[in-house]
Structure formats: C-alpha cells, structure tokens
Design brief:
Layout: H1 7-28, H2 35-39, H3 53-85, H4 92-123, H5 136-155, H6 166-191, H7 196-216, H8 220-224
Helix pairs in contact: 1-3, 3-4, 3-6, 3-7, 4-6, 5-6, 6-7
C-alpha cells in the first residue's frame, strides 16, 4: 500500500493539523484570552517591572506556542515518512512521535532563546509589549541576521542522512531547517512578536519553502527525506 493511502498516514496528518489549529487558537482567540492578547502592549503580562520573571514566563509560553503553530505544518510530511519507514521496528505512530520529539528537541530551545532575547530587549527599554524595537538599529540588526541566515542556508545546504532511528532523523530535520527557523525568529522580532500578519506571512513562506520542491517534483520527497523506502 502506498504511504499516503495508509489510514495511519491520514491520522498522523490529522493530529498535526489539530495541534496546529489549537496552537493558533490559543494565540489569537480573544474569548480564551489568547496569548498574543495577554502578552501584547495592553496585556496583563506587559504591565510588569523590567527583568520580571512573570513576563519571561509569558513570553516563553507565547513563543513556544508560536513554534508549534508555525513549524508543525512544515514537518507533517516528515512525520508520515518516519512512521512509514519505521512501522515494522517501532510502529507507525511511535516512529512519527519520535521524529517529532527529536525535531522539537532542537527547535524549542531556540524558540525559548527568542523569548529570552525579547525579554532582554524589553527590560533594557529597546522594545515593549510585543511591538517592533524602539531603536531602528536594533530592527536593522535583526533583519540583517534573518537575511544572513537565509543566505547561509542557500550556500551551505546540510546534506541528508539515513539516521539510526526516527528521533535522530527528527534532529537532522531540525538542523536542516535551522537557518530558516533563525530567520523567522529574527524577522518576527524585527516586525513585532505580536504582529499577527507577519506571523501568518512567515508561516506561509516556510510552508512554501518546505513543500514547493515536493510539489514540483515528486522524487524530491525521497531526496529531502531519504527515510522512505
């Protein structure tokens, strides 16, 4: 049975879609006191003294949720691929779950570091309430860092590897996407971490960058994710 006709493949994709939808909902739903509202300029987490641990906790929760909302769609195909590749040795769902754990084990520390950076900028007066930085030089440096990460990715593509299991392939997948992740973080900080429009556009750009080669040429799936056999 082809991988994308397997019922478990669609279940994995459904779970990934549900996790993405729940993350976006928890960010923006005003009826649930969405995290963007809580951490924004007029939110309860914004009215705290500099270097306050509560503000850092709120930003960490918001950035972690942003990471799930923006990155889970980019690895949905890889989760299915890992589940299919290791269905006999690990089980379909276990293979997909281990890939996700390996992936976010690399991604989430970087996302939490972004929360720490924003907390630092706010505490020293260079930003406030999830808005763009107050100083144009800081914005320029952040945008420059994002552009440098994208250029680095184009010139130094990390090669593929077979991996010793789904978790290691998840780690490798995260390392391959690391420049894009760092560019996303830098641009989001420069435009304002609570800027929903920028968040949506960056999410779309990352989806296109991840799946356009696969849509253009089906064989690319086996080149980008050489874990399907």
């Amino acid at each position: 049975m082809p991988v994308y006709r397997h019922p478990k493949s669609w279940l994995v994709l459904a779970v990934a879609g549900a996790a993405t939808a729940l993350a976006w909902l928890s960010l923006v739903n005003p009826g649930m006191a969405g995290l963007i509202e809580l951490c924004g300029e007029n939110g309860v987490f914004a009215y705290v003294a500099p270097w306050n641990g509560g503000r850092l906790l709120g930003l960490a929760a918001m950035w972690s949720t942003m990471g799930i909302a923006m990155m889970v769609p980019c690895i949905a195909v890889a989760l299915v691929a890992s589940g299919w590749r290791w269905r006999e040795s690990f089980g379909f769902f276990t293979g997909a779950l281990c890939h996700a754990l390996g992936y976010f084990g690399v991604v989430l520390p970087r996302v939490l570091a972004a929360a720490g950076l924003e907390w630092t900028l706010e505490s020293i007066g260079l930003a406030s309430g999830g808005s763009p930085p107050n100083h144009p030089l800081v914005s320029a440096l952040l945008l420059g860092a994002g552009l440098a990460a994208l250029l680095w990715q184009r010139r130094h593509r990390i090669g593929t590897m077979q991996g010793q299991g789904p978790a290691l392939c998840g780690v490798h997948h995260a390392l391959r996407q690391l420049p894009i992740l760092l560019a996303m973080i830098s641009i989001q900080l420069a435009l304002g971490s609570m800027n929903l429009g920028a968040m949506a556009l960056l999410s779309l750009a990352m989806l296109v960058g991840e799946y356009w080669p696969i849509c253009r040429n089906r064989r690319t799936l086996f080149e980008v994710l050489p874990i399907v056999r």
